[in-house]
Fold each of these.
Amino acid sequence: MVHAEPALIASDVRDRLVVVTPWYPTASNPYGGAFVRETTRALLSHFPDPLVVHTEVRALDAEPVAASRGVVDGLDVLHLPVPMDPLTPRARVAELVRDALAPYAQALAEAEVVHVHVGMPTGWAVVDLLGDRTRVVVSEHASYLNKLWALPESEAMYARTVREAALVTAVGQDTTRALQQRYPDVADKVHTVPNPLDVERFVPGDVPPTNLHRWLYVGNLLEAKGVLRLVRAFAAWHEQRPTATLTVAGGGVDADRMRALAAELGVADAVTFVGRVAPAQVGELYRDADVLVHLSVAETFGLTAVEALASELPVVATATRGGVRTLDVAQDEGMARLVPVGDGVDDVIAAVRDLEERRASARPWLVRDDLAVRFGTGPVAAVLADALRGAPVDEPAPDAPLVVAVALHGSAVPGAARVVRDAVRRGARAVLVADRADELADELDLDHRVQRVDVSPVRARLLSHRMEKWVLDAVPRTLIRAAGPVARAAGRPQAVDAALRRQQRLSARWKQVVGRPGHARIDPGALARVVARESAALVADPVLVTWGHAQGRPLAERIAQRSPGATVVQDADLDLVSRLVAGARSAR
């Protein structure tokens, strides 16, 4: 085991932010862990003098590297190599990382806060060393949690990490939800904080491409990243477009397999491998490409896809947990298409062709602006700094602008979900008014910040619904059951069951033919009066109210009556939501 001298971490750590990470850019791997560096840089305005401790897991037969400390790219970095066999079990990896950090435990305990990237191996190692001697916040990026949880030893270690850390953040909502469901006793200290992105670092090309001939891949060259499927998909595209090219940026154990497959499929001359590219140069690759194709099996966030979109480059990616949420706005605006995880190439070709056909109607600038709001360096750093210092995390201010989306018809639900989603991402308060609102929130995976008003109980209390239930169901079924003794005495006990079935059919038919159209006319006005009155405090003073379908219009207009300045529209896109929320915030 190679250790740094204790003097490398001494009293100068006191009252500073210390970042402990298993991934960080090095001379041999300039892109590895770049997101950790960017996250730490983003925090400089909040923690001006952080120390980064890079516990690099290295193969035993790799060239020996001594521990060292110095200023790298403007950050104070301690590089601490941890040699081990590549097949070392994950639990043992965590123990070896802990042992490497052990000589510096006392110094680390004097930090203002220790920000640890990933729960295993580094999160457990730090928690085991420091206990409650200082504040420890763990940020989870890993896509391999299920593998950790499948082994009793590593699962127990991970559970201890989550429970003993002061706070746990995850870069994606799916990971947050998985952690909350796995550890419900501490669910309230698990929050979503995405990776930050310096959008201004990525400059769009001068002319948007019309034909998506120049494919690009940026990332590790691993089968788990879908690189072999990428080559097969490109070969199929190249067969249709002989001038097409594929540029592959990155390194990894499957690089030779990619080259061999490209040669086997006859596209070796059209595929260029440029190796690992430093983050400062990756923007040029995006500007020189027409489409990024990234077919990873699993992603918690998908940084390269976000970087590409910041460069206004269309993206085809897999529908991983991270991709579904990170790229949702890009899909709406014609800048991204998601394909199923798997081996197929036809869906990849169809996705590229669809993006190509939609280029004229796509709004890349709106996607870029959305990325700046959701993942921009400043907004994410502010949320993460609050998390590190123990302030409330990612909750809208009580006086934030309010957006209300009414969805009283099934066709209005998708649009309402987009409106409230976009509103909370911009720091607004948002309310969804719908039948089964709580169930819809789960089905649509809405942010926890969206408040809900369920109109189902109100609808059931309306006189028209109570009369229908009484006349069509309660009274007839009571009378039929009362006739049971007479039927049995006459030797026809089955007559009661037959009558109940007939009554049920007639009731269902009446509701379908007469009741439903009748309720469609009566309910909107009645619901508007009751819901607006009973939920007055929750929906007071909105800047925007949407109604989606004619059934929701009376309620939307009644909600807006007390707010003459509110905008009331059937549907609202991202641009309108953004302008109204920003305008209301600046006015206040």
Amino acid sequence: MASGDEDDPIIQEIDVYLAKSLADKLYLFQYPVRPASMNYDDVTHLSAKIKPKQQKVELEVAIDTMSPNYCRSKGEQIALNVDGTSIEESNTFSTKMMDKQTFSSIQATTNTNRYAAAVFHKGELHLTPLHGILQMRPGFSYLDKADSKHREREAANEAGDSSQDEAEDDIKQITVRFARPESEQARQRRIQSYEFLQKKQAEEPWVHLHYHSLKDGRSEHERQYLYCQAMDTSENTELVKTPREYLAMLMPPLAEEKIVKPVGPSNVLSMAQLRTLPLGDQVKTLMKNVKVMPFANLMGLLASGTDSTAVLRCIQQVALLVQGNWVVKSDVLYPKSTCSPHSGVPAEVLCRGRDFVMWRFTHERSLMRKEVAAIIKLPPEDVKEFLEQMAVPRANRGWEFLLSTDHDFVKKHPDVAQRQHMLWMGIQNKLEKVFNFSKEDFLQKKDTQTEPQCISGEQRLKAARENAREHHASLQKDLDARRLKASPVSSAPSGTDATVRIKEEPVSDSEETMDTSSALPNGSLNGYPSAESPIMDPYNDHGAGQTSTPELQDFIRNTFRKHFVLCLSEVKRLFNLHLASLPTGHCVFGHVTDRMLQDTILHSHCKQILVPFPPQSNASADEQKVFGLWESGETFDKHRQILFEIFMKNYRVRRNIIQTKLTQELGDGVTKSDIDRLLKECCISLGGMWYLKGTVQS
């Protein structure tokens, strides 16, 4: 306030007083059907009455029948319809002409605590709280009177005609009926009915009032009560408040209202209510209700514009891929500490039985109920429930899977299909131990959702052996070439004829076995892992001592020249995607372990960036192993190396710290475009901070 360049200076202070003399009697009348320039101040008011409890007011005002705008014939016709031709004191229009109209009020608002009437006088502002705000609209009760008179005349005519046919001495039988006791529910409905409310309102008597015009002496006297009578501020305590109390009066805290949700059928899902939930809960709720669904249908049920990648992450947490379609997981339908509603079987046993049914459907289109029940040994009601969730009965064919195989999804998302295949391999191993069966027991003609599941174990082994024989010659040539290249070369002494001798050394059995194993069953078929050994085994790190293939080195080198910074889990994902894209029978990588993959990265001009993750970080071990391209032969390598050294001290930094460090190390030649390129290649921004790619979810 003391600054000289104040934009909104105080030019005047006004004292405010609270007048309470008319606080319980002051009403504001509004006339919404008439313009403000045409008021009723000079119109003759014939009568006024009020129902104080309901705040209902009726005013009768005279109509100027001598006005050139008044239609005399219409006025006489209305009076004739209402009162008829008789002359009585109860007539609505005594002059046989519509010479008055009635205004009836409705409440504009039920809460008038925020409204007051103000009078500004001699530099003082006097406020009087309003008791009610009423909108006065023309009433047409006289038309109801005309209708009732018409009905009375018709009833009288009918009664006169029927009385001539009736005998005066007719004796009629009277039946007495007693009303049954009213229940509490019926009483509540009757109290809330429109008829009861109308009757209740009609019970309050009218209080007749005397109207005084604007310029009347009584009106002038009453207007004096709009001024505060007690000017002493010690008595006017309503406006003497602390700043906190005054702020609470201006903005009272919102009262939390309990919204009673409508109770609907248990099997009905409200889409409007569903879309208020987080994405993960939306996917989980939909899958629990639908049980089996193609991915395209799931995207159609979600809100438009939903990211399909985020939906894929969510769906894999609550469902499994069966024949290209998503089936809700068993532990989602049967949580822990629950049991079967049919037989009381614990949830753990139900989940194992249902997983077996799902696993069988990954290999076959149809199942026989008796065969399933004989293995999982659960009550028939539970087995039938499993099958009804994901299949339909077919005559003479058992239970057929509910949906056709979604080949489009498998082709569009091969990485997801491969991950799900690996997951099913683990589930299969558990089921074989629990139910004591072998997969070969169910070998028959299959029609499943992915190509790897269409091939049995024997067929894979046969294909791998054929593939080994086809590539054995070329692999042997490569092996010989590497041995020749690695053999020592000796030259003749100086001054003699130059001769070169190649020293031949025998090839050890272990080395030959290592190379040929890349084409045997431990390899891959059509880019998918074989049933005997997976391509990427995160639980097997016994690859020390094995050498990587040139193809693997080329893949790592090309990948890091494109992405610059990757965590180990992301490298695995990209590697599996690359394997899935290879043509059928193409096998060049062999058995790749985590150790082999990391060694290949470190020997491809890359370096592990020891990012200090916070203790509460939920990143996995593979996600905390971060690698960056250290040398690529460009002058820009120095920029990346300085950036990596910064992130070895903190897992997140600000842009100005990176800019300052680069300027200190490389001089003033560092431009804004260099920093932009560096951050774009290696980092992502989140919440105003910069992180290395792969260290946080983007």
Amino acid sequence: MQRASGPAPRRRPVRAVRTARPAGGAHHRRRLVVGRTLLVAALLIAGVKLVQVQGLEADALSQKSQQQRLTTKKIPARRGAITDRAGRQLALSEERRALYVLPRQLRKEWDNPKTVEQYKMNADQRTEQIAKGMHEVLGDEFPERELLAKLRSDRSFLYLADSVRPEQARQIREVKKFAEIGEEYREVRQYPGAEPASNIIGLANWRMDNPNDQKVRGLLGLENLQDSLLAGRDGRRVVETAQNNDDMVLPGTERQLEPAVPGSTLELTIDSDVQYQVQRMLADYVRKSGAKNGSAVVLDARTGEVYALANDRTFDPNDPNVLQKLSKDDPRLGNPAVTTPFEPGSVNKVVTAAAGVEYGLVRPDTVLEVPGSIQVADRVIKDAWTHGTQRMTFTGVLGKSSNVGTIKVAQQVGEERFAEMLRRFGLGQATGVGLEGESAGVVPARQQWSGSTFGNLPIGQGLSVTVLQMAGMYQAIANDGVRVPPRVIRAEIGPDGQRKDMKRPEGVKVVSPETARTVRDMMRAVTQSAPQPQRGTGPEAALEGYQISGKTGTAQQVDKTCGCYSSSQHWITFAGILPANDPRFVVGLMLDAPTVAPYNETAAPLFHDIASYLAQRFQIPASEPGPVQQLVVG
């Protein structure tokens, strides 16, 4: 077959056919690249952080984690002691431990299979072992079954023993290796002298309103007033505590320790033997006399130091529940000898006697015409016994306690000089003895005196004093006219044994030495037991072998129903000096409304008993007998 002739036809070039692509392809690629980059960066950062945590910061982070579990706790400082003037302890602290357990945690740890495998015992066996071991150390006071019940309880925290000796705690935790048992510091305050000095020393105990406070704190008396000195400075410890409970210390986790500094010791001027005997004799006399209460004080005649400060009723500071048994206003918890003033009666006549002699108005043998009564403004003052006009020596006015004779001499002294003498004797002023709640007593301000005031004050009515102030007046006469404010703290002894003696207060000159000796000699007539009319008002106070100066007192109490002086209720007082020729002690006494005869008439027999004890206790040399003094002339 022939092909057609002519040129061959031209072919079109074949074009490549493109496949269609979805929109946004370039953006997708970019996201993949960014994602891969971020992933690599995150892995690099994590790696660097891992190296930093496990390497460079491992110790710091571990310490920070540990600190988040730690709690700072106080270590209570041991409280300082209180001693008498001879160093005999009146209050002291004994160290104790409270033992506790975390029962839930103990069971959890000892039921762990690894623990069981290691120690070959479970929680029941371990608690039985602990209960038995603790009973062996602590004795029958802690029965094994009771300890076991506590150890197996479902409580998170329990005290097993509240007060055990430190060596017992050490034996349980270290010797028997019961590390599960925790311990807390405890302090037990003890009072060897118990009741006789409790009104002075007071009480220290746990604060009932804060049971978590582990520190003994002063609550009454010197324990309270000197709390900062006795308490010392607390230390610190850092412990691990249970989660969400900083009060629950994990046993054996103490990390750091700043030791506590013990408190200082207070040495008192009190003689514990004298305090005991005076308190005993006072309480017996109050009981026999039917008085509502009574107080007594014994002062050193030269220094004003308080050897005894007693009240008839006290409390037992060793009773941990005493504050729950007695109301806060109960007088047994206070110290009426310094807090409760009274009208002194005739013991206050020493002010008139001192002023009369000091200003040269009278001498012991000055004879006064003393009628049976005297009128002062709208008042008529009488003597305690009925008599017409008598001629008395000024010594006789004191010895027989004549109100009329005293007022006659006071009128010579004058109101201004008498008011000044009251101030010099310290009336109306707190003594600053260093005891809680001391009263300054009451002396009417000079500008408030009425016409009859000067008929009351010279005979000890219309003003009030404490037993301590009253004794301080006689201390001035015993100390040749210089009143030394009384003190009850003798020294502070630091925890390092360094002693700091308390500075004796500056003396206050009341009268001259000659006046003081003259008045002291005149007051021997009070205890004079010569036949009447030369007999004094307090011969029962006389002590064989010693010259005794003193003054009896009887002051009417106010009848609240009428606002007037009672004819049946009295304060009975006595102040005396032993011995008069060379004073060593001053004794002040007060009985509140005694009712039983003959003890309701005078406190002189009580002074005799106390003076007799003091003379023997301190071996005071006997006195040369003094002459009988003339009280009534003609």
Amino acid sequence: MAPTSLNYPLSSDYANNAQHQDAFRLKYTTMVEEVRRLFDNTEDKLLLVDTIQRLALDHHFTTEIAAVLRQLNDAVSNNNTFNGSDCQLYGVSLRFRLLRQAGYHISQDVFTCFMNSKGEFKNIHTDDTKGLLALYEASHVGLEEEEILDEAEKFSRHFLCAKLPQIDGDQARVVKYALQNPHHKSMGRHMANEFLENLDCENEVEEISLLHDLAKMELSIVGILYQEEVLQVVEWWNGLGLAKELKSARNQPMKWHMWSMAMLLHPKLSFQRILLTKPISLVYIVDDIFDLYGTIDHLTLFTQAVKRWKISETEELPNYMKICLKAIQETTQEISHMVFKEHGWNPLVYLKKMWGDLCDAFLIEARWFSCGHLAKASEYLENGILSSGVPMVLAHLFCIMGSSSSSSSSSSKETEQLFNDTKSISHSVAMILRLLDDLGSAKDEHQDGYDGSYIECYMEEFLVSSHKVAGEHVMNMISNTWKKLNKQCLSSNTLPQSFTKACLNAARMVPIMYNYDENHSLPLLEECIESMIC
């Protein structure tokens, strides 16, 4: 096992004191190794794995965690460990979720021992709060047409909600938070802060105290790292000059960088996070240009210039469009150069195509709304998948992270297939974002433009008069899309696991980014920024 190194920045308290820095690094490295030894000395290894993952410390222990879960999967396959005398709701649910999240094909049938002949969960489990909570968490790693897990979600949610008034304050807080933020569908590092607050650091068990202290140090270190990243992003953004040109456009570099922080959790991916934030930022600005600034004629010329990759064809365009096109080209070339240098293939042709597809989608929406055309729901959604910006951003992410392929030709084929396939991971993440974005009626506090809504198209096409009914329809679509995404991650044999995890993380970030309150603000995002950066 390679020694753990700590090459992250330290707080100002330590910055000018080499002795304190060395002591801090030594303590941190020592604690990581102490936790590593727990895998040999702790009886309940699954609880250890779950706690480490919830505290976002798992990047230190990937080998140990993989070994534990591989051994568990082998035991399940050979001995049917889930059943018999070991059939406890909490244990089975935890094992099922951990194995599913790690990509193992565990059948939903492991829960049949908790069900009666009618296919319903037995009421004898309704008093088991810990078990119900674990069952609820497990239900969210379900796939399409898994009726047992659908029933598990309904059963556990119903009785957990019913028990809330009867349980004490701390436990009630944990249950309420979990019901709103199931672990599998929530952003890891933000959840780590919440989990840390609920962790009993007063517990005399050595493991709990050790994990608590290590997590506190990690969060402090990563928070400082994120601060430095944001400063670099802001410096790059201000250097473009687009904020001065586009007074009404969004100017939110910290918010944009939150996407990268959510997708790429490993502390050592700082360079990749900063690089990824650049195309993310430009997606927001291009969206604002199409919604707030450009005429149809100028937007058409802008789209053509992007697709031809010709700055020389922009004489007729406003200055802000010229600056934006130049920023798109420079950023794309910077990323392509890095990919070629680090991974041996040049993705420029595909990234150029993704920018062209994005502008085409924006232009279609601009033309619809300029003439008052209301598209069919399916037509709007098909175009909205592209205009979400998700396929374009994930294409850049895929390239930045590298590929599992060894040759440039196979990497190119992977890229083309990944972002042209409606059954792809990218498509599912984009669907979740588009539907959640359109579900809320509130608009971004810095966004006065209007670019349509799936709900409006659906209600008009299918003569639905109730916003509540339409909203329930959309929530069902989101739930089904999550099941597709789970399956895509579970069955993906060609894509790097690091990329599929990043896609999952992108989907997990969506509710935080689009949870507007009555004041058109994003309280969850503000809370997330405060907990991770400040």
